[in-house]
Design brief:
CATH class of the largest domain: Alpha Beta
Bound molecules: beta-D-glucopyranose
Number of domains: 4
CATH architecture of the largest domain: Alpha-Beta Barrel
Strand content: 15-25%
Helix content: 25-40%
Strand order of the largest sheet: 1-2-5-9-10-11-12-16
Structural class: alpha/beta
CATH superfamily of the largest domain: Glycosidases
């Protein structure tokens, strides 16, 4: 990835909180020292980019999204020296680092706000947005944290005026109409770029400006400012990335790409809940429809796609009926709902169903965009809804079945959060050590599929075309890039399913399944017939067969590599023998299938 300006198109991103990953100093809180020790684990998993949640000085009332000093690292997590060493060590392993730029608001503990509230004449006063009469101001702006806030204005008893905030009332919004704020935040960006990081997640980016009579989201002024940020980035630095956190409908999110001159990446928020809807409705329509509403994006841009993250599973980008459906299917626990979302990790959402977990990752790894894995989800970690706010999905990483899950040597009572200890998801049942030595574990499955995904550029860069099928329970699409044509077919149903695919345009191609390298019958004139076991999926490459009866050399090579991956994981010996046997098997199957008229 080193010299590729478009590296983020092939990224497999791992999202983590330094406090939750590994405690290297034994004080019960994860830190950069610990994270460095665990980089080999991440490299082995196969990810090539880390997205770090906020690690700055903060009173931690919103887990660090309430920053009180943009240039200081919270001492609990380490020093600037530790941070820079972490970035260097990650780079040594070909892992890029994205950090958070929380530009919309600060903590009310930030010196800027403290100064601002002391005197209306202070220069910092204009860093924030104030009013005497909140009742009629910016009324059309929605309240995001609706479970804890009743207004976007909060009373400041010190300066006796109301200030504007889109999130918690302890997070006053910065005033982007003030050119000094705009310049200051640009300097913050430069400051962190100089530490060697590869880019930023732009937190809460739609809300930078306020304009009366609008909903104060996605305003033209915001886009102008982002273009400025991008210009400064491109002027001085190479290959750095801006990732927009804009929880908006596809058309509005796309505006954050500009003409390829704004953000490089943006989260596809509307896709995520529709993957879960598709699964429970056993119907590919929600996914196909939302992708149909998603405009083409500029060549140098990329989606960031995800199943879960550190927040509640947000249901802002669905209709009311769809939200009701999602709550009834996925929020059975009385405490599961939070704001407009569901505070569960991935595995508990689907009751630990292994086939469903694999299917969801099949979709995540093959839809257009760079996939994001939330720490612990590669193990199927559980959550604790009793911890309040979103803390239940932010518990310590489970490394072993030993004391404190191998996360920390501190007294258990000293941990920053309780471990998950229930019999189903507790650390004795779910941990890295146990899964490493179990060939069939979810962790080893993830490793295998990440490695397969990384072999085909079409996953990160290819076009998307849905394939007509006779069965709406089958979500089937093509990913095409240069000479790679991949065909993905996912069974969203809990039952076995047949499907006929319209693959006429690929007549005479040979579908080679990417995991085992097994070739399926050649595509003919009739609809291509596949059967699926419950929640099963296929990843195929549609190979061109130059001469009848001959398998393409490339197919043999890729298949041999695939076998190598699975052999390495299961730890069996006799690799070469197995590889030769598979090559023989492929040839035989190809010969057979070239004679076979499909359908
Ligand atoms: C983050 C949340 C945070 C909020 C306010 C969101 O975009 O993902 O975790 O609470 O911004 O900063």
């Amino acid at each position: 990835m080193e010299h590729d300006p478009l590296w983020y198109k092939d990224a497999i991103i791992y999202e983590l909180h330094v406090k939750a990953f590994f405690d290297g100093t034994g004080d019960g809180i994860g830190d950069f020292q610990g994270l460095i020790e665990k980089l080999d684990y991440l490299q082995d998993l196969g990810i090539n980019c880390i997205w770090l949640l906020p690690f700055y000085q903060s009173p931690l009332k919103d887990d660090g999204y309430d920053i009180s000093d943009y240039r200081t690292i919270l001492p609990d997590y380490g020093t600037m020296k530790d941070f820079k060493r972490f970035v260097r060590e990650a780079h040594k392993r070909d892992i890029r680092v994205l950090i958070e730029l929380v530009i919309n608001h600060t903590s009310d503990q930030h010196l800027w706000f403290q100064e601002a509230r002391q005197s209306k004449k202070s220069k910092k006063r204009k860093f924030y947005v104030w009013t005497d009469e909140p009742a009629n101001k910016n009324k059309a702006a929605r309240i995001i944290f609706m479970d804890s806030e009743s207004s976007n204005w909060a009373w400041d008893p010190v300066s006796k005026q109301y200030y504007w905030h889109r999130f918690f009332s302890h997070q006053p919004d910065l005033n982007y109409d003030n050119p000094i704020v705009r310049r200051t935040m640009l300097n913050v960006l430069t400051y962190w770029l100089n530490t060697g990081v590869d880019g930023f997640r732009l937190d809460a980016v739609p809300y930078l400006f306020e304009r009366e009579g609008t909903n104060c989201e996605n305003l033209p002024e915001t886009h102008e400012y982002l273009k400025d940020l991008r210009r400064s980035l491109d002027k001085k630095y190479n290959h750095k990335v801006l990732l927009a956190e804009a929880n908006q409908w596809p058309k509005d999110v796309c505006s954050y790409f500009g003409e390829g001159d704004e953000c490089h990446m943006a989260f596809h928020f509307p896709l995520m809940p529709r993957i879960f809807m598709g699964l429970r409705k056993e119907d590919s329509t929600p996914i196909i429809e939302i992708m149909g509403q998603t405009p083409e994006i500029p060549e140098n841009c990329q989606w960031a796609i995800f199943l879960r993250n550190h927040d509640e599973l947000t249901l802002e980008m669905v209709t009311e009926d769809e939200r009701d459906f999602m709550y009834s299917e996925y929020a059975q626990h009385p405490k599961a709902k939070l704001n407009l979302g569901i505070r569960h990790r991935l595995a508990p959402l689907i009751n630990k169903g292994r086939r469903q977990l694999e299917l969801l990752h099949s979709i995540l790894f093959t839809m257009p965009g760079s996939p994001i894995i939330y720490y612990g989800d590669e193990l199927g970690m559980g959550d604790n809804v009793y911890l309040g706010d979103r803390n239940g999905v932010r518990t310590p990483m489970q490394w072993t079945g030993d004391r404190n899950a191998g996360f920390s040597k501190a007294d258990t009572a000293q941990l920053y959060a309780p471990l998950v200890v229930d019999p189903v998801y507790g650390y004795q049942a779910i941990n890295v050590e146990a899964q490493k030595r179990t060939p069939t574990s979810l962790l080893n499955w993830m490793k295998k599929f990440i490695s397969i995904r990384k072999k085909y550029k079409a996953f990160g860069r290819g076009s998307l075309k849905f394939v007509k099928t006779s069965n709406p329970k089958i979500l089937c699409y093509l990913r095409e890039y240069e000479d790679e044509t991949l065909l993905i077919a996912n069974n969203l149903s809990r039952y076995v399913q047949p499907a006929e695919l319209d693959l006429r345009q690929f007549k005479n191609r040979l579908p080679m399944e990417l995991v085992g390298g097994v070739c399926f019958p050649k595509i003919g004139d009739l609809p291509y017939f596949l059967t699926f076991s419950p929640h099963a999926f296929y990843w195929f490459q549609l190979m061109k067969v130059e001469e009848p009866g001959e398998i393409a050399a490339e197919a043999v090579e890729k298949a041999a590599q695939a076998v190598h991956v699975s052999t390495k994981i299961s730890g069996t010996t006799g690799r070469r023998k197995k590889k030769r046997a598979t090559q023989r098997e492929i040839k035989t199957k190809a010969n057979l299938s070239s004679r076979h008229k499909s359908g």
